[in-house]
Amino acid sequence: MKLFKFIFSPTGGTQKAADILAEGLAACGNIPDTMTETIDLTDYSADFGAVCLAPEDIALIAVPSYAGRVPEAAMKRLAAVRGNGARAVLLCVYGNRAFEDTLVELANGAKLAGFKTAAAAAAIAEHSIAHTYAPAAGRPDAQDEECLKAYAGKIWEKLSGEECPAPAIPGNRPYKKLGAMEMIPQANEGCTKCGLCAEKCPVQAIDRNDPHIVNREQCIYCMRCVSVCPLSVREINPAAVQKVALMLQTVSPARRECELFL
Q1: Which residues lie below 8 Å from residue 114, measured CB to CB, with a gap of 6+?
Q2: pLDDT tens digit string along 26-53?
Q3: CA distance 134 to 130
Q4: DSSP three-state, residue 50
Q5: Which of 7, 48, 99, 186 is 20 to 30 A away from residue 128, measured at CA?
Q6: Where is the secretion signal located (predicted)?
Q7: Are strands 58-64 and 87-94 parallel, antiparallel or unpaired?
Q8: C-beta atoms surrounding 215 within 10 Å
Q9: What is d(CA 195, CA 242) in angstroms, rounded to the nearest whole number?
């Protein structure tokens, strides 16, 4: 039995939460590092069709929630994987506002890829745009870590049982429509055209010869380019960031906690 970690984490928040939960699952199941494999769903060049699981394997599938939905690129790449009946633990990570239809959409994608969903969880990470938004700043924190490790124990208990029925997962079908949003980071005059942002962009929306040029139709506003820029010269209009932060503080001023669905 192997533990596969399928992770779409452009800025690292989803990765942090997924690693905590995965470490907990591995500890409960005495799964060594040599039997754990990470599949980076942000890697546009990877051959996801070559990823093939066995029925006894376990998959942790972790994605961020973008406006209450799964990033389209993550869904397409997951669809190419051959799950072969392996049990899946789903994890969506969001910036404290709401995850809405993310988990139910991810569950459908996992099913189409041949996985059997055994459990699902939602966790909070620092907002990828509004970093100062207080309820999400610095998360996942120690309290989140304790919670996710406890979830790992409960999930493993279910996985160890004779039966492993699919959990009831909140969300709507049809999924919520994605609203119009344009938060495209731009390179300022300090850009040296090193090309790292273009290389690391999950959807290849940035011109490799001139990082000032961004394909507005391809960009998914994931902020990967901002997080990897070695000179911190890619940015969003500060007024737009402030507007997002104010909206978040208005609609969701209180701290939200992790949730588990068994």
Answers
A1: 81, 82, 83, 84, 85, 86
A2: 999 999 999 999 999 999 999 999 999 9
A3: 9
A4: helix
A5: 48
A6: none
A7: parallel
A8: 13
A9: 28
